[in-house]
Design a protein that fits this description.
Layout lengths: L1 E5 L8 E5 L9 E10 L2 H8 L10 E2 L5 E7 L11 E4 L2 E2 L5 H4 L10 E2 L11 E5 L3 E3 L6 H22 L6 E4 L5 H12 L3 E6 L2 H9 L4 E4 L5 H8 L5 E5 L7 H7 E9 L12 H6 L3 E4 L5 H12 L7 E6 L3 H9 L6 E5 L1
Parallel strand pairs: 11-12, 11-14, 12-13, 14-15, 15-16, 17-18
Antiparallel strand pairs: 1-2, 1-4, 3-5, 3-9, 3-18, 5-6, 6-10, 7-8
Helix pairs in contact: 3-4, 3-9, 6-7
Bound molecules: zinc ion.
The site of zinc ion (ZN) has 9 residues, from helix 2.
Length: 342
């Protein structure tokens, strides 16, 4: 089969579109014929490599995907050949104390499809059957592929970790990426007010069309000052900060006393300058979050099927153009998800 893969870590020039043997199907696994696969910032991290990542090469990238069941491994009964399915990339051990509590994203042996095993940027992908769910009939392959990782992440951050309530004010830095546009939808679904920032007027316009209540151009204004003005000097209840180094101090400044800052990533770098005095004086809760557990994922698919959540698709590329698609992602020009399709 053809796949987007790497033979070694490095820059975009390491990405190849090549023939690779399909792996033998194992008991408990499902082979899916890929129809659509979404790109994530994670793909760029895996491409570059990091010290804890020790991959067998060549490695196929891609952590989101949807397609049609091609073959079932021994013991898989929940699906039939031909079913339309979507992937939850979080592979958990099912045995540790957190898995036994149903907290799969806290698994001590958590692995991700595309990060620790072969990913979805290929004509076929092979994954454990427990990581697969059926696509609601009203949802396209593209929407299903664009949905999982970002909505799982945003839902767990805002619903589970923050416990967002109707009327809460939520600030989202750097609207445009997949997690942020998912977070914006979830804030509106749960009845909050959304405050968003971007350096791109075009992205702010799109966010406004999706229901953002306050939009700030972070290059032209002092965002913290404006947030204070728009919240009658109170600050926001919650800040979603996936940006990291370039926004962390602002997050501490703009959150209200007793407010919450939640993070699931650090696209501008993981080691921000911080200010402990603001954290204790304002009694701020700082929350980490990653992926979701399986019951959160199923709840989300229900909301997807009802049309109450809808992934934003930026553009699609043929599978063969994986390198160009990742280059587009790296340029941070997208609003919503980029996809590879077959
Ligand atoms: Zn586990």
């Amino acid at each position: 089969m053809k796949a987007i893969l790497i033979h070694q870590h490095g820059g975009l020039d390491q990405i190849q579109f090549e023939e690779i043997d399909r792996r033998q199907i194992e008991p408990g696994y499902i082979l899916v014929k890929m129809k659509a696969a979404a790109l994530n910032h994670l793909d760029l991290l895996v491409l570059e490599g990091f010290p804890a990542l020790n991959l067998e090469m060549p490695h196929i990238l891609g952590a989101d995907g949807a397609g049609v069941v091609e073959a079932l491994g021994e013991g898989v009964e929940r699906f039939s050949v031909g079913d339309r399915v979507m992937l939850n990339a979080a592979m958990s051990c099912e045995e540790c104390e957190f898995c036994r509590q149903g907290e799969h994203s806290m698994c001590i042996r958590l692995r991700l499809v595309g990060e620790h095993s072969h990913g979805t940027f290929a004509e076929y992908f092979l994954v454990p059957a427990v990581n697969i769910e059926k696509i609601p009939s009203s949802v396209s392959f593209e929407e299903a592929a664009a949905f999982s990782l970002v909505f799982q992440t945003a839902w767990r951050m805002l619903k589970t970790r923050v416990g967002l309530k109707a009327g809460d004010d939520v600030f989202i830095h750097g609207i445009g990426g997949g997690v942020c546009s998912a977070a914006l939808q979830i804030v509106k679904l749960l009845g909050g007010r959304a405050f968003v920032s971007s350096s791109s007027d075009n992205k702010l316009e799109k966010a406004r069309a999706m229901g953002a209540d306050f939009c700030y151009s972070c290059e032209q204004t002092n965002v913290v000052k404006e947030v204070y003005r728009d919240t009658a000097k109170r600050g926001v209840d919650v800040v979603v900060d996936n940006v990291g180094e370039s926004t962390w101090i602002q997050s501490l400044q703009m959150v209200r006393r007793g407010g919450k800052i939640v993070t699931c990533g650090a696209t501008s770098g993981p080691n921000p300058k911080t200010e402990i005095r603001i954290i204790f004086w304002k009694q701020i809760d700082i929350l980490g979050s990653t992926m979701s557990n399986r019951s959160e994922y199923r709840e989300l698919i229900g909301l997807l099927g009802e049309g109450r959540l809808k992934p934003v698709i930026d553009r699609t590329f043929p599978l063969a153009e994986g390198r160009q698609a990742l280059e587009h992602l790296q340029g941070q020009k997208q609003f919503g998800k980029g996809l590879l399709v077959t």
